[in-house]
UniProtKB/TrEMBL annotation:
It is found in: Mitochondrion inner membrane. Its main location: mitochondrion. This is Mitochondrial carrier. Keywords: Membrane, Mitochondrion, Mitochondrion inner membrane, Repeat, Transmembrane, Transmembrane helix, Transport. Belongs to the mitochondrial carrier (TC 2.A.29) family. It is a multi-pass membrane protein. Solcar repeats lie at residues 27-112, 126-210, 227-311. One of its GO terms (biological process) is mitochondrial phosphate ion transmembrane transport. One of its GO terms (molecular function) is phosphate transmembrane transporter activity. GO terms for cellular component: mitochondrial inner membrane. It comes from the Eukaryota.
Amino acid sequence: MASDKSDSKPRGGTVVASPLVPNFTLRDYSAFFTAGALCATITHGAMTPLDVVKTRIQVDPELARHSLLSGGRKIIAAEGPKGLMTGFGPTAVGYLVQGGGKFAGYEFWKKKFVEIAGSQEVAVQYRTAIYLGAASVGEFFADILLTPLEATRIRLVSDRTYATGLVTGFTRLAREGGLRDMYAGFLPILCKQIPYAIGQFTVNEFCHELANRSMTEETRANLSGVSKFSISLGSGIIAGFAAAILSHPADTLLSQINKGHGPGGPMASRLYTLAKEAGFKGLFAGLGPRMVMTAGLVSGQFLIYGGIKEALGAPPGIEIHKD
């Protein structure tokens, strides 16, 4: 937790104020990046089969009315079990760099915004804005790294004949479409990933705050490992549900854009046309499977992130919860 600005101690007759926030070093940020990279690539890689089914439900009319289970069975029947691992390469690599950038970015920008607030009291008062801002800015820069690999993944998943894997798919995309096609999905991916990050980080922060406020200081100080795990798991699951709901319409549009659907012209116009054609129901097609997947992703990421940070000796993040 960030120290209260009023904390001070005499040193040689001079009152020295405690810093508002800890001074994270380059080593600390490297640990944040490593922990974020590993937690994201492990969880997204493990969820590849669910993501394949979810994407097919969104872009394949024959699977649009199928559930996660029946859709998976249909894919296996047509393509074999390997069909469920389509796009694993770009998923693993994409979320390795995106996860590192997102988690380290959130820690960095949260610290910066707390410093801008100027005091612990003001930071606590405006903690929602700080969470939203840190999640959004951190995600923006992380998505610059993610977008070309996500475009490759969706092409591999939606068209089994596109390429044989990450290297051939990425090379074909770069050769045939260049930067324009590689970043064609940048706007919709921002529309997807920023609400996702907001749900992930902001809701998780408030879930932890509610849990802490329901306990006395003595209880919090003596929490068992199982209790801490349960709070982290429950907070992550709820945050995952929020992330899925907030980001799903843009996730559906992103799949359509990378599949090549929709008219030409400016991206905003294409998104509007596709959203109008899909309607409310179409924009939320596949939400159920994605909520299950995202709850597992987000809760798993926070648990792994915390474990790796601890193993690397990284400091805890800044806490601005209301007491």
